[in-house]
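[Solved] Which block belongs to which protein?

Original post:
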Amino acid sequence: MTTAPLALQHAARIMCLVGLAMITPAGTGHAETPRAGSPISADEVYLDHLQGHWWMEGTLGGKPVRYRAHGERVLQGGFLRLHMIDAAARPQYEADVYIGFDAKAHEYVAHWLDRFGAAGARVVATGHRDGERLVLTFPYAEGAFRDTFTFEPQSSTWTLLLESLEANGSWSTFARYTLMRAPHP
C-alpha cells in the first residue's frame, strides 16, 4: 500500500471540512460544530439545549451545593461536554460529563469523569430520551446509578436527578440539581 492515496484522502477530508465551515451560517446564537451523519437529529438538538453557562443548585446527600457549569459541543460536535465545578472559594468537586447520541443504536452514551479518578471512568452509561427527559444508567460494579436530565423549554432550565440502586432493587436519591442560565463569567 502506498501513502499517496491516504494523503489524498486526508486532503479531501480537510477540504470538505473547510467547505462546511464556509457555508455554516454565522450568528446562530451559539457556536455549533457540524456533526458527522447529517442531518442533525432531534436527539442531537436536545443536547444542544445544554450549551452555555449555568448555575447548578441543589442537594447532594441532603446537603445544599452550588456549582458553576458550562456546556459545549466538543470533538467535532460528536459530544456535548458539561463541565461542572464547585462554586466554593476552594472547589471540592469538579467533573466533565460527555454525552453523545449513537444514531445507529438509537441510544445515548455518556462518560462521567471527575476528581475521583480513573476507576469510576471505566463505566459507560447508555440511555434513552422520552420527550424532554433523558435517562442514563451507569452500571457500576458497586451498584448502578441513574442520571435523569429533564429540560423545561418554557423556562430554559434543566433538572438533574442522580439516583443509586439499592440492594432491595429500589432507587434512592443521591443528588438533585436545578440548572439555571448564568451570565458569561
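(Second protein starts here: sequence line, then its C-alpha cells.)
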Amino acid sequence: MESDSVEVVGECGPRDLSPECCLKRFPGQWERCTGSTELAQAVEEAEVAEAVGRISSLALKTGAGGMIVAMAGQSVRIGSAERRGVELATDLLKEVEQVIVQCVRQADRLVNDHHFNGRSPSWELCQQVKVGERTTWAAYLGLFKHEQAWPCLRQALDKLLSPKNYRLHPRFSVNPKTGKWEHLDENMVSQIVSRHGWSGLRGTIEPDIVLLDKNGIIAHMYDLKFPCPETNVAQWEWYKEGVGKDGSQGELYKTALGVIPRLVSPREGVAPKVK
C-alpha cells in the first residue's frame, strides 16, 4: 500500500491493520475505517465504493491465545516452486501485468483530477494532515487511489483470467498449531473483526494481488504503491514491530508466501523481481 514512510494516524494499529487494510475489508466505509465523515462524503461523491463479494463459508475455531484459525480447506494455497502446477503463459502474464499497471495509472489520474485538476501534489502537501489532524494527504490519497483501483482491476482481470486464478487483497495468518502461513477468506476476516475487533488480525499480512496456478497455489504477487509526491520511488514499508520486525514488507511477503513480490506504481509500472 502507501509508500514514502508516511504513517496513517488512525485506530487500525500497525501497518497491516491500518485504515488501508480496513477499507479492503469494508470497501467504501471510510468513516468506519478512518473516523472521518469528510473522507466518507468525498468517496461517496466520487462513486468509488466497491461491494465485498465472493464470500465463502469456513468454520472457525478458537485456538491458543484466543486466535481464530481455519478448520476448512484453504481457497488460496502456499507452496514451493516444486509443488506448483502450470503457471500463466508468458504472453498472458505480460498482458495481466499491463492491465494492472493501466488500472493503477487510471486510479492515480482520476484521484489527482478530482483533487488537483490532474496535477501531482507537492512534497509539502503530502506531509500535511488532511482531516481533523488524523490523516495526512499522502495517506488519504493512497487510500482513495487503492479504492479507485479495485473495480478496474476486478473488471480487467475477469476478462483475462478465471476468478479462481487470482485474488485481490487476500489476507494470511500463521496457524498457531502448525506454525505455517494460511489464507483467511473474507468471511473469516469479517467474523474475526466482529468477535475480536481489528486486534484479532494482528500479525496478519495482506498483499494487494496474487495470481494462482491451476492448483490454487500462489505463483505471482503484486503490491500497489502510490508515492506522494509521484516523483518519489515506490518502496516497501519497513516494519518496526510485530511479525516482520526489523525487515521490509517485501521480505515478509516472500518468506510467508514463497513468492518474490513485485511493486506496482503509476510512474514505474511493475518493478523487476529482486531476489
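Accepted answer:
You had them paired correctly. Confirming on the second one: The chain has one domain: 15-270.
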